[in-house]
Design goal:
Elements: H1 2-10, H2 16-21, E1 38-39, H3 42-52, H4 54-74, E2 80-87, E3 108-119, H5 123-189, H6 195-229, E4 238-239, H7 253-263, H8 265-286, E5 291-302, H9 306-309, E6 317-329, H10 337-403, H11 409-444
Helix pairs in contact: 3-5, 4-5, 5-6, 5-8, 5-11, 6-11, 7-10, 8-10, 10-11
């Protein structure tokens, strides 16, 4: 307890709290105090998550799929050429005459067709615009997926580091409690103490042992969370370098909000969907406009007997024909379907616009709350440090008086408990502060580490 702590300080060693936060590695598989595991840094975690997590793969596939959909929409600008080959079975009157004895014939028909839209009065343009806007949305969804994956990777890394420190603190607490129990037993054997002191110190020792088991289980669960955040399927006992990120806010609140409204992929995706829905309204409305197109079509028929076709003997070929022209189609009345479809599209665009506004005000609210949480947590951390320092000084003073029989065991146990709890609170709050910063970075759309 205090004697051991004073001895380390007297020999010029680092303070107790800093010793809990320092991690060293040997060969890449050893961490602080001989704990085995696979040492990994934050950058490696982020890169593994971006390359392996299914959320990123799903969003990337959707983005590529929508890119092809844009190409499909643009294909309407180009000519369309089709070719059909038909097997005909004829046994009726044919081009002004009749078959001999009404005998059926079976000619073949080759039919090449070329069509080219000249203008659809905005329909093609609106369709391509809608698909391109949706592509922008998919690309922003991909960025949002990356941002989310990086956020979860950072939180999982900080959480694992926190439980590593808490587990080491729990082991140190158990060591201190065991030392206190031995000293209480020694005082009782010398006739300087009472059995109550030994009983209470024993209860404290059992409590710290249980806490060590809990923290060890929490550490293993944090390792599983980190493997999941990295997109891994196997459980790997990862170990961290154990240091939280830089925590001080870089900008004032107004600038953070402004940055988030221009860089958060979630909001940018919704804004692109707004443009897509507006273009869809024009697509539906344009269906009521005229359609101006060019067409060319050919017919080559063979297999018709020379007695009918007039072709030279042995040729059996009916002379080919060709036609071309310009088509002008005007919808007159379709039962009001276009009017209803247009109104439906307008309502969908309005709904999408309101969804975008909802996302916008949610982002503003979340940034404000996280900014306040960050400042509150920084003040809490400062108070935690003061509490821990005071508890450590008080514990040393009480321990000296306890060893001389000047205070009872209740006071000594209370002082020891205050050191243990303030130490754990300080460690946990440091990483909670880092996690709040992780949340703030995600909310404003800051792309850090990738």
């Amino acid at each position: 307890m205090s004697g051991r702590g004073e001895g380390r300080s007297g020999r010029g060693g680092i303070p107790l709290l800093l010793s809990l936060l320092v991690v060293s590695s040997v060969g890449g598989v050893q961490t602080a105090r001989g704990q085995e595991g696979v040492l990994i840094d934050r950058t490696a975690v982020i890169q593994a998550a971006l390359s392996s997590h299914p959320l990123v793969s799903i969003a990337a596939a959707e983005s590529r799929s929508q890119k092809e959909q844009v190409g499909t929409a643009r294909s309407d600008y180009y000519p369309h050429l089709t070719l059909s080959i038909d097997q005909l079975f004829l046994n009726t009157a044919f081009i002004g005459g009749v078959f001999p004895d009404f005998e059926p014939i079976a000619p073949e028909l080759l039919n090449p067709t070329l069509t080219q839209d000249i203008t659809t009065f905005g329909l093609r343009h609106a369709r391509v615009k809608a698909e391109r806007s949706l592509l922008e949305s998919r690309q922003e969804d991909l960025d949002e997926a990356r941002l989310t994956v990086v956020y979860h990777a950072n939180v999982a890394y900080d959480q694992l580091a926190m439980f590593e420190h808490l587990y080491r603190a729990a082991k140190k607490n158990e060591e201190d409690a065991a030392l206190h129990y031995r000293r209480a037993a020694e005082r009782l054997a010398r006739g300087l103490g009472v059995i109550t002191d030994v009983t209470m110190s024993r209860l404290l020792l059992e409590k710290t042992r249980l806490e060590r088991v809990r923290e060890h289980n929490a550490l293993q669960k944090a390792q599983a969370d980190l493997a999941y955040a990295m997109g891994g399927e196997r459980m790997v006992p990862y170990r961290t370098h154990g240091s939280p990120q830089t925590l001080a806010p870089d900008w004032p609140l107004d600038r953070l909000i402004d940055y988030s409204l221009h860089h958060r992929p979630l909001l940018l995706s919704e804004q692109a969907r707004d443009r897509e829905k507006v273009a869809r309204v024009e697509v539906v409305r344009s269906q009521n406009y005229p359609h101006f197109s060019l067409f060319a079509q050919g017919y080559i028929l063979w297999g018709v007997p020379p007695t009918i076709s007039g072709a030279p003997p042995g040729a059996g070929l009916f002379l080919p024909t060709f036609q071309s022209g310009v088509g002008f189609t005007v919808p007159i009345f379709v039962g009001g379907a276009i009017m209803h479809d247009t109104e439906k599209a307008r309502m969908e665009a309005l709904r999408e616009s309101e969804k975008t506004r909802l996302v916008r005000i949610q982002i503003i609210r979340n940034v404000r709350k996280l900014y306040d949480d960050l400042e509150t947590q920084m003040q809490t951390l400062s108070l935690d440090q003061a509490r821990y320092d005071n508890a450590l000084v008080n514990q040393r003073l009480v321990e000296r008086r306890f060893s001389r029989g000047l205070v009872d065991g209740v006071t000594a146990v209370d002082a020891e408990t205050e050191v243990l709890t303030s130490r754990e609170r300080l460690i946990a709050d440091r990483f909670r502060l880092s996690m709040i910063r992780d949340s703030l970075d995600r909310e404003i759309g800051a792309r850090k580490g990738y």
